[in-house]
Amino acid sequence: MSQPLNRPKRKNPLQRTKHPLSPPGVRSRTAHGLTAAAAEGRFALQVCEDCKTVIYPPRDCCPTCLSVRLPFRDVERGGVLVAETTVQVSADPYFRERTPWRVGTVKLDAGPLIVAHLHADAQEGHRVRLDLKLDKSGSAVVMALPEKDTPNMADDPHLREMTCDPKFRRVLITDGRTPVGQAMAEAFAEAGAAIVFVGIADPWKPVPGLEALRKIGPVEIVPLDLTDSESVSEQAEQNGARIDIVVNTAEHVRSGGIVDRHGLTTVREQIDIRYLGLVRLAQAFGPVLRARGADGINAAAAFVNLLSAHALMNWPAYGSYSAAEAACLSAAQCMRTELRPGGIKVMNVFFGPLETEWFQTVPPPKVAPATLARAVVRGLQQGLEDVFVGDIAEDIRARLAVNPKALERELAS
Amino acid sequence: MTVDVLSFARAVALGQIRVVDLTQTLSQDFPTIVLPPELGQCAPFRIEEISRYDERGPAWYWNNISLGEHTGTHFDAPIHWISGKDLPNNAVDTIDVTKFIAPAVVIDCSKECAADPDFALTVAFVEAWEARHGKIEPGHWVLLRSDWSKQDFTQYANLREDGAHTPGPAPEVVKWFVEARDVHGFGTETIGTDLGQGHHFNPPFPAHFYMHGKGRFGLQCLTNLDQLPPKGAVIIAAPLKIKQGSGSPLRVLALVS
């Protein structure tokens, strides 16, 4: 059984903060098939199209039949931990700080033998389930978990290295005015976050739901306006050094496209709140998040982008909205590279139309704010990079993989 | 009669003429008017550093700013309202510049506004004021002193479920100001020249409708009106020369001898 994590003590302000380090992160282009699966929480290995052999590690031709048709497919995770060893000494700076570190050989039911990191509850000779995780370098690694969930499982320090579990972490919800922002505050409080900072812009305007928000235990209301660079940097100066997860809930949903829109005011607001707001957050909070990637149990861990799935393909009925979301997606990809030296994950959470007032005329299926919030928490607990929430988002992802052009045409109607 | 402007300048320098700043500081958190969210919105004031003695410009500090024509202390031109859209010289760039300097009367309604945020100025109220201070002469700004500028921003905007509750003029007094008193324009300390609930009047937004319909001007988000006498102040309110501008943020000064 994993030792339950204790609430971290207050940090000794005279102690040097450890510089974040990364495990070796170079992978072949083929091996990034594992990265893609790990980013979404899938367990996928290469499966030979010709002889059906399941292959690990990733290769460019099948070791059984020499076929080069080796697509990644989701495969069963089950296997047996046949042997384990504990690394006591490592020459690698990242692992040196984290020894002893258990690794083992797992015989997967699907065929291959896989060397994996071991969860504390994965025992030699017992069945395990394998998971692909993104480590601090952003690369996929295999981790063997106990076959069934065990108490305090998520608290295992090696697993927690791979995840962004909100437990005991301090979270910033950037916009608490929206139903999504308020649902997010509730979900993070439930997930054991130590502090949930909730940003409110224009405090002179009434805030529906503010009283309920204040009643959520760890919530602290803070002034934050993503359209105002000074407001964003002031919040980062105040609380940046004790924020471990940033969740950008700012939204600007308006229907209407590009050609038939009258003037630029709405489009400019969308870009200001969404794209420029994200850039302001990234510039203000990014450097301190990155510097605090190895700051103990509540080290900085993640930056969460809530993105319309129409960032992936424009939905002309909400065309300018989709375009602003696409800009945020592009920025998030850049931020991933920039924050990776700190081991900070940038998690993109894609969703379809929400069950909120600005999607009033859109028929279901729609995503409830609480569903979205739970998906964000679950994604962080699993250490994902890309999360698709709800039928529309899943559908867009699937159709995009098959035929982007067909998706473009179909979204037009 | 020749007027000696140098003597005037000397009197200002010597403090014989007091200069009162009627302007709110342009800052990001100062409230702007709030319209239903599906309508176009006035941009709040925003400021971005271009450089501050750094790699972006080693020896100089400067900013880019963005804001709406009706952000902060601002001037309303007749073209702002549909009733004034066809008047000649109705935009800030074409208004005769002599109009930017004019005397003012200040009607103190601060007690009434403190008691009732929906206080509406009436003809009877102004006639009672005239009985004490004399008739309002043609060509004067009428400034409504509410002391609203002394409130915190939440009270200042005073937004409730049925919208803003801030004082202003009733429709008949605006019409009367224009027709019976030939005023220069109307100025307030609140976000607009009209009441917060002014859209329920007939016509809606009467200060805008009647003033601009007759080519008169508006000033709003004024402050320090409590430092002005009921009569005798001269207002300098020159908007930016924005091509076909409907209004403009500006520095409003009052000269008091």
- Gyration radius over CA of chain A: 22 Å
Mass-distribution shape of chain B = globular
Instruction: Determine the CATH superfamily of the largest domain in chain A.
Output: NAD(P)-binding Rossmann-like Domain
In the predicted model, the low-confidence regions of chain A spanning at least 5 consecutive residues are: none
CATH domain topology of chain B: Glucose Oxidase, domain 1
Mean of residue pLDDT values of chain B: 97
Count of individual beta strands of chain B: 15
Description:
The complex is a heterodimer of chains A (413) and B (257). Chain A has 413 residues and is of the alpha/beta class. Chain A has eleven helices and 15 strands. Chain A folds into two domains: 32-162, no CATH class; 170-412, Rossmann fold. Chain A is globular. In chain A, helix 4 links the parallel strand 9 (170-173) and strand 10. The model of chain A has no long low-confidence stretch (mean pLDDT 97). With 257 residues, chain B is of the alpha/beta class. Chain B is 19% helix and 27% strand. Chain B contains six helices and 15 strands. In chain B, the strands form four sheets. Chain B has a nine-stranded mixed beta sheet with strand order 1-15-13-5-7-11-12-4-14, covered by helices on one side. Chain B has a two-stranded antiparallel ribbon with strand order 2-3. In chain B, strands 6-10 form a two-stranded parallel ribbon. In chain B, strand 11 (185-188), helix 6 (206-213) and strand 12 (217-220) form a beta-alpha-beta unit. In chain B, helix 5 runs parallel beside helix 6 (206-213). The model of chain B has no long low-confidence stretch (mean pLDDT 97). Chain A binds chain B through residues 202-206, 225, 227-231, 254, 263, 265-266, 269, and chain B through 28-29, 31, 34, 38, 40-41, 44, 46-49, 152-154, 156-157, 159-161.
